[in-house]
């Protein structure tokens, strides 16, 4: 579709506005709503039900009832698979609408939103296909005994997710959680509730029983906290900041010791050795690593460690590419770089850019742009001469701001890359297989890319070391995460 067509469609799209509890769309019990703003224009998309502790409790009670009824948890996995595949088909039929809702919610370019929706659908299909291929174990015993080690759904699983990839982050959690037979309560971020609300009816239409899937839009400090402290939720799967991730560990300790899995922040290092192959590809990937999704990516390659011998050349190549990531209207299919998620976040990113201007050398960008639109846009920004201990090198900015740091010795690069509270992703570029793999093994990071950035898909795990999280999303490891292990010992 052309830009004008997307704009026209955006003007007439129905904005989902309610919570989804026990198989029905409902208002918040308090009757309160919050404003859902389009950050590309600063205008109101619509008003959304503001759930709080009372709504969370209603959703958990519905989820528990459904779990105990066993219509979903006790269903033949092949039947559950069929339902989830049908839900994926229904989502696919509405891909454009879902992508448009994401773009209106967070200012993500429509082209990228379409990709995210496709990946989300693929996630549902992958877990649906997996669920009837997972076996238990039989332990070694003598003739008089038999031991069965079985995996069972945990019960009520809550997913608390961020705004940067609203549907995809939700899918990484709810697809395996539902596939494993759990009941789910999903709390989308307050900046991006629309697709979470919309997909609820696809699950219902596909045959997910009432109460098995619930959505409670609302603020973190109220609805999110109520989830964390609820005594009848068995597990919280969280994606968001490290600061809030730590709160969920505390909430668990203060309540029922619910399981907590965390996908949190990052400050991912990208190491370009002196013998890096194919510099053109490296520069493309390095620019994409920090500018894709406006840098609002947990794995953003925000620290570039480059060998001093090639520093100037590499900075020039990346600056040239930064020009191609020019901020534009997210509804234009040619746009690859949209707006920041909201005004507060834009100001936070601009504050970091100010810090960078005093602590390092501004090599590219650094300004707010497109103010005439009413939206919240920041230019792709590159700093050189960045010191390892300064704030723009240590703290997660979650915006399009690249810090370039030189090194002479690969050992120094590895030490600086590991000098971070985070450990989500990293990359190393080298022609020498030994240098590349030895470096990969020494990086304290859940993901290491060799001679690429962001190579991955649903088949492999995703998650971090250190304060980037606990546990993994994606792959069969994530499916296991949404189950409990039970031993049944039979005396024959
Ligand atoms: P955030 O931590 O502010 O919010 C995440 C979720 O937690 C939201 O639903 C929010 O409403 C809720 N929340 C906020 N405060 C809460 C509180 N006091 N109690 C309970 N819940 C609360 O994060 P964000 O700004 O939405 O997202 C950006 C962060 O997410 C970045 O740090 C980014 O790195 C991280 N992230 C990590 C991954 C990953 O897979 N590791 C993926 C995407 C984003």
Topology:
Blueprint: H1 3-12, E1 19-21, E2 24-26, E3 33-38, E4 43-49, H2 53-69, H3 77-93, H4 95-106, H5 110-130, E5 137-139, E6 145-153, E7 156-160, H6 166-179, E8 183-187, H7 194-206, E9 213-215, H8 220-229, E10 235-239, H9 242-254, E11 259-263, E12 269-272, H10 279-291, E13 303-307, H11 311-324, H12 343-359, E14 361-364, E15 368-369, E16 377-378, E17 381-384, H13 391-394, E18 401-407, H14 410-418, E19 422-423, E20 425-429, H15 433-442, E21 447-450, E22 465-466, E23 469-470, H16 475-481, E24 483-491
Parallel strand pairs: 7-8, 7-10, 8-9, 10-11, 12-13, 12-20, 13-18, 17-18, 20-21
Antiparallel strand pairs: 1-2, 3-4, 5-6, 6-24, 11-23, 14-17, 15-16, 19-22
Helix pairs in contact: 2-8, 3-5, 3-7, 4-5, 5-6, 6-16, 10-11
The protein binds nicotinamide-adenine-dinucleotide.
What does this structure look like?
By secondary structure, the chain is α/β, with parallel strands linked by helices. It has helices at 3-12, 53-69, 77-93, 95-106, 110-130, 166-179, 194-206, 220-229, 242-254, 279-291, 311-324, 343-359, 391-394, 410-418, 433-442, 475-481; strands at residues 19-21, 24-26, 33-38, 43-49, 137-139, 145-153, 156-160, 183-187, 213-215, 235-239, 259-263, 269-272, 303-307, 361-364, 368-369, 377-378, 381-384, 401-407, 422-423, 425-429, 447-450, 465-466, 469-470, 483-491. It has a 7-stranded mixed beta sheet with strand order 14-17-18-13-12-20-21, sandwiched between helices. α6 (166-179) packs across α16 and α10 (279-291) packs across α11 (311-324). It is globular, with a radius of gyration of 23 Å. The model has no long low-confidence stretch (mean pLDDT 98). Residues 160-164, 169, 187, 189-190, 219-221, 224-225, 228, 239-241, 244, 247, 263-266, 298, 396, 398, 424, 464, 468-469 line the site of nicotinamide-adenine-dinucleotide (NAD). The site of nicotinamide-adenine-dinucleotide has 31 residues, from α8 and α9.
């Amino acid at each position: 579709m052309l830009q004008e067509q997307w704009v026209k469609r955006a003007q007439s799209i129905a904005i989902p506005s309610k919570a989804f509890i026990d198989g029905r769309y409902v208002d918040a019990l308090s009757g309160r709503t919050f404003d859902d703003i389009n950050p590309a224009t600063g205008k109101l998309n619509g008003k959304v039900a503001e759930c709080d502790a009372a709504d969370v409790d209603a959703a958990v009670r519905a989820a528990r009832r459904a779990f105990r009824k066993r219509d979903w948890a006790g269903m033949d996995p092949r039947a559950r698979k069929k339902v989830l595949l049908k839900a994926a088909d229904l989502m696919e039929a509405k891909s454009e609408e879902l992508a448009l809702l994401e773009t209106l919610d967070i200012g993500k370019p429509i082209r990228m939103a379409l990709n995210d929706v496709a990946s989300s659908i693929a996630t549902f299909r992958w877990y649906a296909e997996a669920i009837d291929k997972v076996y238990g174990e039989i332990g070694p015993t003598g003739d008089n005994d038999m031991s069965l080690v079985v995996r069972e759904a945990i019960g009520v699983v809550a997913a608390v997710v961020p705004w940067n990839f609203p549907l995809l982050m939700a899918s990484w959690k709810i697809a395996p959680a539902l596939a494993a037979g759990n009941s789910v309560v999903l709390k989308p971020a307050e900046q991006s509730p629309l697709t979470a609300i919309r997909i609820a009816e696809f699950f219902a239409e596909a045959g997910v029983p009432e109460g098995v899937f619930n959505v409670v839009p609302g603020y973190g400090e109220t609805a999110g906290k109520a989830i964390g402290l609820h005594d009848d939720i068995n597990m919280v799967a969280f994606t968001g900041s490290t600061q809030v991730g730590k709160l969920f560990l505390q909430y668990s300790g203060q309540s029922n010791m619910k399981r907590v899995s965390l996908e949190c922040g990052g400050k991912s290092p990208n190491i370009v050795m002196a013998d890096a192959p194919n510099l053109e590809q490296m520069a493309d990937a390095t620019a994409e690593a920090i500018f894709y999704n406006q840098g609002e990516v947990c794995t953003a390659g925000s620290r570039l460690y480059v060998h001093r011998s090639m520093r100037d050349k590499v900075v020039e190549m990346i600056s040239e590419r930064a020009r191609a990531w020019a901020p534009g209207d997210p509804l234009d299919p040619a746009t690859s770089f949209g707006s920041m998620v909201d005004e507060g976040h834009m100001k936070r990113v601009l504050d970091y850019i100010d810090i960078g201007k005093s602590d390092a050398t501004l090599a590219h960008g650094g300004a707010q742009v497109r103010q005439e639109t009413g939206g919240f846009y920041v230019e792709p920004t590159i700093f050189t001469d960045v010191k390892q201990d300064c704030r723009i090198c240590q703290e997660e900015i979650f915006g399009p701001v690249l810090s370039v740091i030189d090194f002479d010795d690969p050992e120094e690069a590895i030490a600086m890359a590991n000098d971070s509270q985070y450990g989500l992703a990293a990359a190393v570029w080298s022609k020498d297989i030994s240098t590349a793999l030895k470096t990969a093994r020494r990086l304290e990071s859940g993901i290491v890319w060799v001679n690429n950035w962001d190579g991955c898909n649903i088949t492999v795990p995703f998650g971090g070391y250190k304060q980037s999280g606990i546990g993994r999303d994606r792959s069969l490891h994530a499916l296991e995460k949404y189950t409990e292990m039970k031993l049944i010992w039979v005396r024959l």
